[in-house]
Amino acid sequence: MVTSLLEFIGRFIILVISAGGYAGIVLLMGIESACIPLPSEVIMPFSGYLVSVGRFSIAGVALAGALGCNAGSLVAYYLGAWGGRPLVEKYGRFVLISHHDLDIADRFFARYGEGAVFLARLLPVVRTFIALPAGISRMNVARFHIYTFLGSFPWCWALAYAGLKLGPRWIVLREYFHRFDAAIVILGVVFVGLFVHRRWKNRLGAVSK
Predict the structure, then answer these.
(1) H runs (alpha helix) in 121-171
(2) Most Cβ neighbours (<10 Å): which of 5, 29, 84, 190?
(3) Global pTM?
(4) What is the pLDDT of residues 160-192, one digit of tens each?
């Protein structure tokens, strides 16, 4: 079932780019950056392949991808700022997130937000969701957009360039990145598990006192 879903998504991406050109790339990368995990590891290499056959330019493809990232990230950012933060403030205690945690996140994004957003945009999986916590912490929106673009442009360029060099064999990148995605997801699950375990242990300790 998972394989069939991935194949369907791959066909959808190819169809949208083939029909929509640069606008299709902007749309798809916008969807990916709005916390809907369409794989940029398919979007950009296929676009790069189309560079190899003369339909696109590498600079145009990378620019379209980065602009799409910024557009989609704006949706996710404001979803976090307008909807996510009130939910966390009201119900966060039920998932072991306190107001103190929000204060820590706010200070982190105020001090290190630029670097965090830039680096996250260079990582699979993480890049799709970084806008949401940035919005929840209400990072300065102008700085958020600047560093989103600065991180997204080299990512889009690198994937498109790989597709350009591989030509018709661009599809092999999908399997390689799927394995990398799985590793990132596993690390994320471990981190969340450790966070929950530590919080639950601290809560039990406080109750016992």
Answers:
(1) 126-129, 131-136, 141-166
(2) 29
(3) 0.77
(4) 999 999 888 887 766 665 555 554 455 555 544
